[in-house]
Amino acid sequence: MKISYECGPCFLRQAREAMDLSTDDEQLKMEIMEDIFKYLSTRFKEDTNSNKTGSMMHKLIKEKTGCYDPYFKEKIEGNEIALKYLPDVKRILDKDDSLENYVKIAIIGNILDFGAFTLDDDIESVIKDSLEKDLVIKDIEEFENSLKSNDKVLYLVDNTGEIVFDKLLLSKIREYDLDITIAVKSEPILNDACMAEALDAGLDEFGEIVEIGCGTVGYVDSEISDEFREIFNNHKFIISKGMGNYEGLTEIDLSSKEIYFLLCAKCNTISRDIGVNLHDMLLFKK
Questions:
Q1: CA 174 to chain centre
Q2: Beta-carbon-side half-sphere exposure of residue 262 (alpha carbons within 13 Å)
Q3: What confidence score (pLDDT) does residue 124 get?
Q4: Angle value at C-alpha 126, between 76 and 23, nearest 5 degrees
Q5: How many whole angstroms separate alpha carbon 169 and alpha carbon 101?
Q6: What is the largest CA-CA distance in the chain?
Q7: Distance between CA atoms of 211 and 227, rounded to whole angstroms?
Q8: Which residue numbers in the chain have pLDDT < 50?
Q9: Residue 80 pLDDT
Q10: Would you say the C-alpha torsion 50, 53, 56, 58 has a positive or negative sign?
Q11: Which residues are registered as beta bridge partners of 260?
Q12: Whole-angstrom Cα distance, residue 143 to residue 130?
């Protein structure tokens, strides 16, 4: 997906937050912001890839500050929030254990995103409200047909915290007797899940966990490893969590894939691109 004008202030907001989490050196932050302005002044154009631009900005901040996991504490907080709501979520599934409900819960987990929300946003209130909402786009029948007709699936996870809810959907998918491969980031980026967080959450109980070979905002095709490209190419059926993966995957040819996007539309640019309202929850085949 290409950037819109609204991505500009979002990039700068993310840069400020990442710097504040990385260092207390005000002079260094000033120097880094100057570098970011220079970078964006040459790259911020209509045909620019949003994921790659954001990834390069975060890489610059990491290299300049020497802090390679700025959102470490926020990832812990994300897990704590998810675990807090897990009993409520399980009660919902006890009443209705339909595939659609498992999908909805996994998408609600996608709200735990410090790339889209600010550190000061009341994410817990958004989760509470979302528990009462229905999916706006729900290609459930097609999704279940893919679960029944394939023998393996590649599951691209997104955020730490969110993966606590992903476990519930993975347990449901396993009922369809598929081999599950779970893809995580190789290096920290925002509050995205890496191997350590995935193992801590127990995702290895449901399938093999693999790394994509980079630490990018969402999926950036030019940055993934040869090993992961082979895995990606060898999977016809793919489940993609989150906006970042949507932004990156819509940049490449997916005509040979059965790919389903599970996300909450947390920004206006994504909402307009898909044709939905802000905060709508979606399961759709691309």
A1: 21
A2: 27
A3: 56
A4: 40
A5: 9
A6: 57
A7: 9
A8: 114-119
A9: 82
A10: negative
A11: 239, 285
A12: 21
Q: What is the reported pLDDT for 120? A: 52
Q: Order of strands across the sheet with 208-211? A: 137-138, 281-285, 258-264, 237-241, 152-156, 179-184, 208-211
The span from the first CA to the last CA of the chain, in angstroms, equals 13
Query: Pairing between strand 237-241 and 152-156?
Result: parallel
pLDDT score of 126: 61
Tokens describing residue 131: 């528990």
Residue 208's region, left for phi above 0, alpha for psi from -120 to 50, else beta, is beta
Alpha-carbon gap, residue 108 to 53, rounded angstroms: 27
Predicted confidence at residue 108, as pLDDT, reads 84
Predicted pLDDT at 114: 44
Q: What pLDDT is recorded for position 112? A: 61
How far apart CA 14 and CA 58 sit, in angstroms, is: 9
What is the identity of the amino acid at 198?
A: A
Phi, psi of 83 (to 5 degrees): -65, -30
pTM of full prediction above 0.90? yes
pLDDT of residue 115: 43
Query: 221-252: string of b/e by CB count within 10 Å (b at 16+)?
Result: bebbeeebeebbeebbbbbbbbbbbbbbbbbe
Measure the CA dihedral 266/269/275/277, to 10°.
Answer: 40
